[in-house]
Specification:
Blueprint (H helix, E strand, L loop, with lengths): L1 H16 L8 E5 L2 E5 L12 E5 H7 L5 H7 L3 E3 L16 E3 L8 E5 L2 E2 L18 E7 L4 H4 L6 E7 L6 E11 L3 E12 L2 E12 L8 E13 L4 E15 L12 E16 L3 E17 L13 E18 L5 E20 L10 E18 L4 E12 L3 E12 L5 E12 L3 H5 L11 E14 L4 E21 L2 E22 L4 E12 L9 E9 L4 E13 L7 E14 L6 E8 L7 E3 L2 E2 L4 E9 L1
């Protein structure tokens, strides 16, 4: 009882003293004592389906963006693209869905547990999710609203950054060149001495895109620092900034001239973590802000000429979250937390001949506060784990929302597990839907769904073979859709859908040189959902003879609604090759990536053709 009291006091002390950016299950060794830094709760405690994409997988992909890596390795996840290069903020690029639930902001992205979304429009910020300096990504394939609230309706993606783990200096650099004059550079350096550690990284991407008028550039910078006070407390902070400018030629049916987006995004957080053996947790304060300038462009032959204004917006979301997981008795984990979020922004049209003019057209904000509790209890020497939790969230806009979750995990034999879960997900309407532009409706209610799923997983052949099979049923209600009221467009809570399907994934380490993996997802829906393929298949073969490494990939989608009359079906074959030179100061790898070698032409967004065969090559070094 005394230890539980100490844990409680640690939680209260954290609330009053610090703020926390999470490093889920990250560990810092200090004089034979480990200070653990979890975020809210371990993914092992949730009965939902979880996919973890490791740093090794991310590095092997040679991608500068995380989204294509996640799409390939997470069953049921799909990302829209409008061409070769960046995702952009318009024309639907970078929209993420899981199991057909997605669109603007129904899958919550986080960096070290910090929510990442635009305060006015609510959407994910796809171009800011770079691969540089990432330790792993944990994707929950199903509603995560019990832990994270709104925007986690369809699932959650937690990007966990890399940090210094050993004394001294270490780093990495990479340069890539390829099709459409694409150039990508990234570097990162870590330093640790005793209790103090810091990591800094930077990335620069630029290219012309696969269509005229698609040129872009993007820069990203990251700085992290932490200090381990003693064997029970650690404090730290981080800052991330992204600058980007991209041009958009519109669609083939409605081409645009002079359409561009200038974006600046920033995030910052401070945190404190504790570990008292039978309990651990922390507190985190964060802010995410952005400034966007957009020229809407014009269509020759349709519009009289270019617009005389620029659309500008400033947005933010900021908050504080406190959490603690306690083990009051054997085989029990009790997680508790409190969240507060303040988000909003302003937008206006600024004359091009006086872009600094600030005649506010729109300004609004919302507040949300929530508390949650989740318990997992093991029985029969952890043969069965029962999980249940509930969240109460209050909003200044829609009032109270109860979010329950329950499930269990059964381990009937060595290397096998069965998960079952029942959970609620919800998404609060964003400021654009509530107040901005003519379709706005301030009386909108949150949209929500009920999710039922079961997952079976089996490890065989000394854990060299891993096979998983999952089934799900989703009943969505009060979906926000465009309707007509008195002859005018208006956002309404009228939509309802039922999604159901299954997902299969398998990986097999054949021997020291050969390994294979594949995943397949099937989605059936009773309504038409854009950008959610009925079938998605990804398969990969890896061969590593000595210092060489070769990878063959098959990526296939069929039954995809793009807005065109016919559904899109496509399959692509990709090849990668790399050679590593071992050096005393660190390895150097030269690589070549050939994508879509079968030169398949296809569209994900109607009127935005994707490139055929592309090539990227470069050099990667570590020290």
């Amino acid at each position: 009882m005394k230890k539980v009291s100490v844990c409680f006091l640690a939680s209260v002390g954290a609330l009053s003293a610090f703020a926390s950016e999470s490093m889920l299950n990250d560990t810092v060794a200090l004089r034979n004592v480990e200070v653990s830094a979890p975020y809210k709760t371990s993914v092992e405690l949730t009965p939902l389906a979880v996919t973890t994409v490791t740093a090794a997988t991310i590095e092997k992909s040679t991608e500068s963006s995380l989204l294509p890596v996640l799409q390939n390795h997470v069953p049921g996840m799909f990302v829209t693209e409008r061409g070769f290069g960046n995702y952009g903020l318009q024309t639907g690029g970078g929209s993420v869905s899981i199991r057909g639930v997605g669109g603007g902001n129904k899958v919550l992205f986080m960096i070290d547990g910090q929510p990442q979304w635009a305060g006015i429009f609510g959407h994910a910020l796809s171009d800011t999710y770079v691969a540089n300096g990432v330790e792993r990504v944990e994707v929950v394939r199903g509603p995560s609203s019990m832990l994270y609230g709104s925007n986690a309706m369809g699932g959650s993606v937690n990007i966990i950054t890399r940090r210094a783990t050993g004394d001294g200096v270490s780093g990495r650099g990479q340069a890539m060149f390829g099709s459409f004059n694409t150039q990508k550079f990234r570097t990162g350096i870590s330093y640790r001495k005793g209790r103090f550690g810091t990591t800094a990284s930077g990335q620069l991407d630029r290219g012309n895109g696969n269509r005229k008028g698609m040129d872009y550039w993007l820069a990203n910078e990251y700085l992290q620092m932490y200090y381990t006070i003693n064997d029970r407390w650690q404090v730290g902070s981080n800052v991330t900034m992204t600058q980007s400018k991209s041009h958009n030629p519109g669609t083939l049916q409605e081409p645009l001239e002079s359409m561009w987006t200038d974006m600046f995004r920033g995030t910052a957080s401070i945190y404190a973590h504790n570990n008292y053996g039978i309990c651990n947790g922390g507190v985190q304060a964060y802010i995410n802000w952005g400034a966007h300038t957009i020229d809407d462009g014009w269509t020759p032959g349709v519009d009289e000429g270019p617009t005389d204004y620029l659309f500008r917006s400033h947005d933010y979301n900021m908050g504080i979250t406190a959490f603690q997981t306690i083990r009051p008795w054997e085989a029990n984990d009790l997680s508790l937390g409190i969240d507060f979020v303040h988000w909003g922004g302003r937008s206006w049209n600024a004359p091009k001949d006086n872009p600094g003019q600030r005649n506010d057209k729109f300004k609004e904000y919302e507040n949300e506060v929530a508390g949650y509790v989740m318990m997992q209890q093991g029985f029969l020497e952890n043969l069965i784990d029962v999980n249940a939790g509930i969240r109460l969230q209050h909003s200044s806009q829609y009032g109270n929302m109860w979010v329950p979750q329950a499930g269990f995990i059964v381990k009937p034999m060595a290397g096998s597990s069965v998960k079952f879960s029942w959970s609620k997900g919800f998404r609060a309407p964003n400021l654009r839907e509530l107040y901005l532009f003519p379709p706005q409706n301030p009386d909108l209610k949150p949209e929500h769904l009920w999710n039922y799923e079961v997952e079976l997983r089996q490890f065989l052949l000394d854990n060299r073979l891993n096979v998983g099979l999952g089934f799900y049923f989703i009943d969505g209600k009060d979906m926000i859709q465009m309707g007509r009221v008195e002859g005018r467009n208006r956002w309404l809570n009228t939509g309802r859908f039922i999604n159901k399907g299954f997902e299969i994934d398998a990986s097999y380490v054949i021997n020291a040189q050969w390994n294979v993996m594949a995943n397949y997802s099937y989605l059936h829906t009773d309504t038409k959902i854009l950008y959610a393929p009925k079938n998605k298949l990804y398969a990969e073969v890896n061969y590593t003879p000595g210092q060489w490494a070769f990878t063959g990939e098959l990526s296939s989608v069929w039954g995809l609604l793009t807005g065109a009359p016919e559904k899109e079906n496509y399959a692509m074959v990709n090849l990668k090759g790399a050679y590593t030179i071992d050096r005393k100061d660190g390895p150097v790898t030269v690589f070549l990536k050939l994508d879509n070698i079968n030169n398949k032409h296809y569209e994900i967004l109607q009127g935005c053709p994707m490139p055929g065969f592309t090539m990227m090559g470069g050099i990667d070094f570590k020290f």
